[in-house]
Write a structure and sequence with these properties.
Layout: H1 11-17, H2 19-34, E1 36-37, H3 47-53, E2 64-65, E3 68-69, H4 75-92, E4 96-98, H5 104-115, E5 121-125, H6 141-145, E6 147-151, H7 162-172, E7 176-179, H8 190-200, E8 203-207, H9 212-216, E9 229-233, E10 244-248, H10 253-264, H11 270-283, H12 286-308, E11 312-313, E12 322-326, H13 334-343, E13 346-347, E14 349-351, E15 365-369, H14 371-376, H15 383-394, H16 399-410
Parallel strand pairs: 1-13, 5-6, 5-7, 7-8, 8-9
Antiparallel strand pairs: 2-3, 4-10, 9-10, 11-12, 12-15, 14-15
């Protein structure tokens, strides 16, 4: 006898109500299942996370915080948010957690709102050297509303020059120092950044959008003990739903909460918060430690294999789940490589390299990540084959032949493994039947 609750949506409901959208979702599931997913900011969420996203919690308006809502009927969504907050604090050892941010960018906006005023200087890694748009890029609110003070990596090592950071901080006295980035593949010395921030009485903010899943699994250093505030996304290495999260010290809790609501957001997405709670629980399980370490091992193996095909690996390697590769030795730019790979079912993205001689729209490099492949069960031994497929695509070989080889490889590793958070779990509620794929 089925125990599926009545609220679990069936695929046939969507197919009957809106076949066009059902077909689009079906095609996306097929794309995910047939290709190599190497975009560093993407992952496969578990069936449990996806079930929470499709739950009745999506329909509740819950403006405010637990016990302080502006609408009645929040007793159940309150409990979901309480669990998400408790699990975040326990998993990362944080004094305070805000789980309402809709994205990493909205979490970052809240940090600016909590600690800075318009035109205040904010110091962060240059976008061209691995930073993020919200760290002071002129085309972002962060560069338009605040005064960006960028620091760069050392030209020889392509790693952060901490003494240069210290000197820039002394000269400009920024209100906030940001460390972390979107294409910086190395661990960061948070202790040194803490010392620099203390010296000039600045707020130390770690943007850990990419690495918090690695932190949860003990695969990289933990920024929480050193930072005033840590922002992250929940959909990358943490393998949860699309969304953001903020961790901070108790002394900053009120400022952060008020910066989220009422300053920058109104009603939170309670189904996403519940899904964050599920992902945080999954990240607390012993299997997640193996997963986190597997991401790093796979990335290191992939970097070595790409170097074997002639690519130059930025910083000489990686400590995380991502690899940045300079393709100039292969005679192709990153934009062309992205296009060639996508035509063969290999999904990665173009990326600038430090001191890049090429323009941002067609930079010298690519960025690849191992979060999704590791979820699927790929191991270090598979990375040589993955690198070979990337190299073949970049050399302009027939994309149809490469795509066939990609399909053969990914057939060994399903895109949506049943119960990947808890081996042997049941993949209920993740069926896409019409196209023969599962999502």
């Amino acid at each position: 006898m089925s125990t599926t609750p009545s609220w679990v949506p069936e695929w046939e409901d969507l197919a009957a109500a809106d076949p066009e959208i059902a077909e689009i979702a079906d095609r996306e599931a097929a794309r995910l299942a047939a290709g190599l997913q190497l975009i560093a900011s993407e992952n496969h969420a578990s069936p449990a996370v996806r079930a929470a996203l499709a739950s009745p919690l999506s329909m509740k308006y819950a403006e405010g915080f637990v016990g302080q809502r502006f609408y009645p009927g929040c007793e159940h969504v309150d409990r979901a948010e309480e669990l998400a907050v408790q699990r975040a604090r326990n998993l990362f050892g944080a004094e305070h957690a805000n789980v309402q941010s809709h994205s990493g960018t909205s979490a970052n906006l809240a940090v600016y709102a909590a600690f800075a005023k318009p035109d205040d200087p904010v110091m962060a890694l240059s976008l061209a050297h691995g930073g993020h748009l919200t760290h002071g890029a002129r085309i972002s609110f962060s560069g338009a509303w605040f005064t960006p003070v960028p620091y760069e990596v050392d030209q020889a090592s392509e790693r952060i020059d901490y003494e240069a950071v210290r000197e820039i901080a002394r000269i400009h006295a920024p209100r906030i120092i940001v460390c972390g980035g979107t294409s910086y593949p190395r661990n960061i010395d948070y202790q040194v950044f803490r010392e620099i921030a203390d010296e000039i009485e600045a707020i130390l903010w770690v943007d850990a959008a990419h690495i918090m899943g690695l932190v949860a699994g003990g695969a990289v250093p933990d920024p929480v003990p050193f930072a005033d505030v840590v922002t992250t996304t929940t959909h990358k290495t943490l393998r949860g739903p699309r969304g953001g999260m903020i961790l901070c010290r108790n002394e900053h809790a009120r400022a952060i909460d008020r910066a989220v609501f009422p300053f920058s957001q109104s009603g939170p997405a309670m189904h996403a918060i519940a899904a964050k709670a599920v992902a945080l629980r999954e990240a607390s399980l012993p299997a997640f430690t193996d997963y986190a370490r597997g991401m790093v091992e796979n990335a290191q193996a992939l970097a070595e294999a790409l170097a074997g095909h002639g690519a130059r690996i930025v910083t000489g390697g990686t400590d995380t789940h991502m690899v940045v590769a300079d393709l100039q030795p292969l005679g192709v730019d990153g934009a062309r490589a992205e296009e060639l790979c996508a035509s063969a079912g290999i999904y990665l993205n173009k990326s600038a390299i430090p001191f890049d001689p090429l323009p941002p729209r067609a930079p010298s490099g690519i960025r690849v990540g191992t979060a999704a492949l590791t979820t699927q069960g790929f191991g270090p031994a598979d990375m040589a084959e993955v690198a070979g497929l990337i190299a073949r695509a970049c050399r302009g070989e027939d994309p149809g032949r490469i795509a066939a080889d990609v399909a053969g490889l990914v057939a060994r590793y399903p895109a949506f493994p049943a119960g990947h958070a808890e081996p042997g779990g049941r993949d209920r509620g993740s069926r896409i039947r019409r196209g023969g794929s599962s999502a």
